Amino acid sequence: MDRGVIWRVWLPLVLGLWFLGRLFLHKSLLHGWAGWIGLALALTGLTMIVLARYTLGRSFSVAAKARELVTHGIYSRIRNPIYIGGVIFISGICLIMRLPQLWLIHLLVVPLQFVRARREARVLESAFGESYREYRRGTWF
After folding, report:
1. Distances from the Cα of 60 to the Cαs of 29, 71, 100, in angstroms?
2. What pLDDT does 46 receive?
3. Helices 11-24 and 81-97 meet at what angle, rounded to 10?
4. 20-44 CB burial, b ≥16 within 10 A, e <16
5. 86, 108 in Cβ contact below 8 A?
6. Would you identify the CATH topology of the domain 3-137?
7. How far is it, in rounded angstroms, from Cα 39 to Cα 140?
8. What is the DSSP code (8-state) at residue 8?
9. Would you say residue 29 has pLDDT above 70?
10. Considering only CA atoms, which of 55, 50, 58, 63 is closest in space to residue 12?
11. Cβ neighbours of 19 (radius 10 Å)
């Protein structure tokens, strides 16, 4: 296993699971239905993020770059699984913590993800042209 996989996949997974465990097991939080649904959402979002980062391999970058058009794995169905996973993860955290202020932050994050996705789409369309447009027609968000 190369260092890149450790940094891109395993470290975020371990840190995410550690964070969720610490958060969910915190004694001051009550765990009714919202807490359990929140945990399920947060784990689903984290799984999507880690799976997407693994699938991207060395093509992953924070800023939009056109290294390679990745169309396999989770990317065969969803164009932006890291963004979707992030929104699902944050939704879960909001349900676990039950703080109205977090939902306000969530309301700011969602439009930013759309902006990032559009910016990324322009970069990829510029680099890959019709191949990207064809891929976009067959996938969601």
Report:
1. 35, 13, 33
2. 93
3. 20
4. beebbeeeeeeeeeebeebbebbbe
5. no
6. Four Helix Bundle (Hemerythrin (Met), subunit A) (1.20.120)
7. 25
8. I
9. no
10. 50
11. 14
* Range of lowest pLDDT (11-20, 60-69, 96-105): 60-69
pLDDT for the residue 112: 92
Q: Which two tokens stand for residue 117?
A: 């996705």
Q: For the chain, which residues make up each domain, given as ranges?
A: 3-137
Among candidate residues 3, 90, 9, the one with its CA nearest the CA of residue 44: 90
Sorting pLDDT into bands at 50, 70 and 90, what band is 62? low
Classify residue 57 as left (phi > 0), alpha (psi -120 to 50) or beta: left
Residue 1 has pLDDT above 80, yes or no: no
Collapse the DSSP code of 78 into the 3-class scheme (helix H, G, I; strand E, B; otherwise coil) and give the result: strand
Residue 36 is encoded by which pair of tokens? Answer: 């359990």
Specify the 3-state DSSP secondary structure of 140.
strand
